[in-house]
């Protein structure tokens, strides 16, 4: 029983102590409300201590001086190099003539496009001219002729035309058959008799001539003339007999066959087919359309087509003019010729095979490799100090102009190429290829502060950060925003001071209320160094 009473007393004591603790906490809250608000505000927001922007680490890297500009002047048309007017080391001005191509083909092409344009313009002018009365009369006649042909086709051939065509076919066939059959016996008998008669007459004339052949004037005698006439008659009779007895030649047979075919075609053509009627009707429609066009003038579509043809010809002309102009290679910038890859007689295409390189020797840049851990601290426009091995006692300055978007790797080391343009001051004697070291640091950051990028906000048209005061109250402070480097941004403001904490978050700095909750241990980092 005693043990049970002891436990009851202990439980009552614990309850009383807890109630007293709650009462004390409430009473303190009523007495010190500022402390309560401070605790609440700090619990509600992440805060990060601002740091001087001079905490940024200076980036230093070595490289070689190079020409910042290297413009390759190349021909934009194909051809053969006619002249090269410069050589390496020459100074040129923008627009100076460097080299030329032979222009014979280009000039001819230009003439052709000019002629083509004139043809298109003349076509439009002719299209817009009113129709000539003679053209209208000819068009009307064409319509009537087409209509008459259609009427004739619809009527069909006359009986006389059909009979004549059949007769011509029959005659051609008969002629062919006669050629194949040869001469008849009666014809051969007649030819033989005429030949024999001529032969006898020739013998009689020869005998009469022989009787007076001793005379000196025999050549002019009647007997000589009779002999000559009898000889001719005999030759004619002999030729007739030879023709009658000779079989028909292959050429004669082919001509006879051709005559038969043509006669058959002529007979067939008299028959009117549906295709013939359709063709005749199309001829009538075309003739009427042509007459209507002459009477009404060109349509809007025809005028548009003619104008488009002129536009196309003008484009071709401009292209030909440009090609001719591009046969003269000119300097694209002021500078010095560094290399000449073109030579007279060289056949060039539209590539770098005949390039002339020009550089501005007063514009030099230093290209350096910056490691992956340092490249986030470098930005375009950042100033740099440069030291050259060739001039150890001289200082040079420059500015970052380019940061490579992709990296290079050498033996596992990842770097990014950064270009620094040297200021055009005191560059006497500095040449491409010299070794130099660039030290990149923004001196403007000496009066600036590093704040989390997430801390910057726009409020009522102003750029601000929220500073947590010593009493825990938030205060908006206007700032001037600078450059950003990942999670950190540089700002300037006369209202910021060492030790201020702003509302914001970073993953690389542990001085924020909930860092440990996000998995960052006590060995976390700080602002970029």
What are the defining features of this structure?
conserved putative lor/sdh protein from methanococcus maripaludis s2 fold; disordered N terminus; 23% strand; 44% helix; six-stranded antiparallel β-barrel; disordered C terminus; 529 residues; 10 helices; single chain; alpha+beta; four-stranded antiparallel beta sheet; Elongation Factor Tu (Ef-tu), domain 3
Can you describe what's shown?
The protein has 529 residues and is an alpha+beta fold. Among the domains are: 2-31; 44-51 and 447-518, conserved putative lor/sdh protein from methanococcus maripaludis s2 fold (Beta Barrel), CATH 2.40.420.20; 59-68 and 363-441, Efflux pump adaptor protein, beta barrel domain (Elongation Factor Tu (Ef-tu), domain 3, Beta Barrel); 72-102 and 327-356, OB fold (Dihydrolipoamide Acetyltransferase, E2P) (Beta Barrel), CATH 2.40.50. The protein has 10 helices and 24 strands. It has helices spanning 2-31, 33-44, 104-128, 133-155, 159-181, 185-211, 222-245, 250-269, 274-296, 300-325; strands at 47-49, 51-52, 59-67, 71-73, 79-84, 91-92, 97-101, 328-330, 335-340, 347-348, 356-359, 364-371, 383-388, 391-403, 408-410, 413-422, 435-440, 449-452, 457-459, 462-468, 474-478, 480-485, 488-492, 501-503. It has a 6-stranded antiparallel beta barrel with strand order 3-12-16-14-13-17. Strands 2-18-23-22 form a 4-stranded antiparallel sheet, with no helix packed on it. Helix 5 runs antiparallel to helix 8 (250-269). The two termini are 72 Å apart. The model is unreliable at 1-44 and 510-529 (pLDDT under 50).
């Amino acid at each position: 029983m005693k043990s049970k009473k002891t436990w009851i007393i202990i439980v009552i004591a614990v309850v009383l102590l807890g109630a007293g603790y709650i009462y004390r906490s409430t009473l303190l809250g009523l007495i010190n409300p500022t402390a309560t608000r401070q605790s609440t505000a700090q619990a509600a927001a992440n805060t990060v201590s601002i740091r001087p922007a001079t905490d940024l680490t200076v980036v230093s890297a070595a490289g070689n001086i190079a020409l910042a500009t290297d413009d390759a002047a190349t021909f934009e048309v194909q051809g053969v190099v006619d002249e090269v007017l410069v050589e390496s080391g020459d100074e040129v001005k923008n627009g100076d003539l460097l080299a030329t191509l032979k222009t014979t083909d280009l000039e001819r092409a230009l003439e052709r496009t000019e002629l083509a344009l004139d043809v298109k313009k003349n076509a439009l002018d002719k299209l817009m001219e009113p129709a000539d009365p003679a053209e209208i009369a000819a068009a009307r006649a064409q319509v009537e002729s087409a209509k008459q042909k259609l009427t004739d086709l619809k009527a069909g051939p006359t009986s006389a035309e059909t009979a004549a065509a059949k007769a011509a076919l029959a005659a051609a066939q008969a002629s062919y058959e006669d050629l194949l059959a040869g001469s008849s016996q009666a014809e051969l008998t007649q030819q033989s008799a005429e030949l024999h008669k001529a032969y006898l007459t020739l013998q009689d004339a020869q005998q009469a001539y022989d009787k007076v052949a001793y005379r000196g004037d025999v050549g002019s005698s009647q007997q000589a003339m009779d002999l000559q006439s009898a000889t001719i008659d005999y030759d004619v009779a002999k030729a007739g007999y030879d023709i009658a007895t000779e079989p028909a030649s292959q050429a004669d047979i082919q001509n006879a066959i051709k005559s038969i075919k043509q006669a058959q075609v002529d007979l067939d053509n008299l028959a009117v087919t549906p295709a013939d009627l359709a063709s005749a009707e199309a001829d009538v429609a075309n003739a009427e359309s042509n007459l209507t066009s002459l009477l009404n003038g060109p349509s809007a579509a025809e005028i548009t087509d003619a104008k488009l043809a002129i536009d196309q010809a003008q484009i071709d002309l401009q292209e030909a003019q440009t090609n001719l102009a591009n046969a003269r290679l000119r300097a694209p910038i002021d500078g010095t010729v560094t290399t000449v890859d073109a030579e007279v007689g060289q056949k060039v295409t539209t590539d770098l095979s005949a390039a002339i390189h020009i550089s501005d020797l007063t514009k030099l840049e230093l290209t350096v490799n910056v490691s992956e851990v340092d490249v986030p601290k470098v930005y375009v426009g950042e100033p740099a100090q440069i030291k050259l091995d060739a001039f150890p006692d001289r200082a040079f300055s420059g500015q970052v102009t380019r940061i490579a978007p992709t990296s290079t790797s050498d033996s596992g080391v990842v770097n990014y190429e950064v270009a620094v343009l040297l200021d055009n001051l005191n560059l006497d004697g500095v040449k491409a290829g010299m070794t130099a070291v660039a030290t990149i640091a923004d001196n403007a950051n000496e009066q600036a502060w590093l704040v989390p990028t997430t801390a910057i906000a726009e409020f009522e048209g102003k750029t601000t950060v929220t500073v947590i005061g010593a009493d825990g109250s938030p205060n908006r402070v206007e700032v001037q925003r600078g450059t950003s480097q990942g999670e950190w941004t540089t700002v300037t403001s006369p209202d910021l001071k060492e030790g201020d904490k702003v509302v914001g978050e970073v993953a690389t700095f542990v001085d924020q209320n909930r860092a440990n909750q996000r998995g960052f241990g006590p060995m976390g980092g700080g602002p970029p160094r």
